[in-house]
Fold this protein.
Amino acid sequence: MRELALHVLDLLENAVDAHANRIELYIDEDLARDILSITVKDDGRGMTKETLSRVLDPFYTTRTTRHVGLGLPLFAAAAQRCNGSLSIDSEPGVGTVVTAVFQHSHIDRAPLGNVGASLLAVLLSDRPIDLYYRHQANGQCFELDTVAIREQLADVPLSHPLVREWLQEVLADDLHVQQALL
Amino acid sequence: MPKLKSLEDLKRVREQAQEDLKVRLATGTKITIGMGTCGIAAGARETMHAILDELKKREIDAHVTTTGCIGMCVREPLVDIEQAGQARVTYVNVKPDMVPRLIEEHLINGNAVEEWAIGRLPTQ
C-alpha cells in the first residue's frame, strides 16, 4: 500500500469486523530515536492462540468469502523492510493490540499519508464504533475521541451529512502534525 | 481533542441535523463503499472521498457509509447506491474519475449507469 494510513485503515476495519465497541489508535513519531510506531488496540472478540499463530500467513483467513488474508502480512512486511517489526497480542473476549514499528528515516518507509481520510472511512462504517486517536510528532499532538463527539450529538449519527463535513474539517488538522516534522 | 470552538460548532450542527433527521432517513439516498483490504488496496478510500467531494459540490444530501469485504475482491472498489423506493444498484471498479458521471446520471438524472453496474436489487 502506498501510504501507512491505508494499512491503518485496514487494521481499523479488522477491529470493526471483530465487533469492537472501542478502538484506540496511537501514532508516535519520535525523531530523536528515529522511530515511527503505530498501535491499534480494540476490545473486539480477540483471537485464540491458534488463530494468532497463523495470522501472519497470507493464505490464512477466518473469512468465508475468500481464501487469503493479506492485511496483517502486508503490514508486517512493510515494517520488516524498514528495520522494524510487527507484534500482535490478543485474547478471546478481551481484544487485540497490534503494534508496528518502523525506522522513521528508512528509505523504504511509505509516507504516513492521510490518516484523517482513513479515520473518516471507519467513522462512517455501517457498524458504529467509538474511536480514540492520538498522533504525536515533534512536540505536536492531535487527539480525537468520538465519545466526546457523540455526547454533543445525542441521537444524530456520525454519518449525518452535516456531521460528516464537520469531521472532515476537524480531521484535516491532523495533517498539521505531520507538517511539523518538515 | 478538537478545539473547544469546534465542539461548539458541533452543537449547532446537531441542532440543525436533528431538524431534518427524520426526513433524510425516510426519503434519503444511501451510498455504501466496500472498505475491506481488497477495497482499500484498490483505492476505495479515494473513491469515497471523491464521492464526498462531488456530493458537497452539487449540494446533494446523501448518507455515505462503508462496509467490509463482500467477496468480489477483483471488482473493487464496489459502490452501492440505494434510493428510497428504487432498486439498489451495485457498481464495480469505481475509480475517483468515474464519480462525477455516476453522481450526475444516477442521482441527478435518475438513470443507473448500466455499463458500470454489476447488479440491481429490487426494493423489498
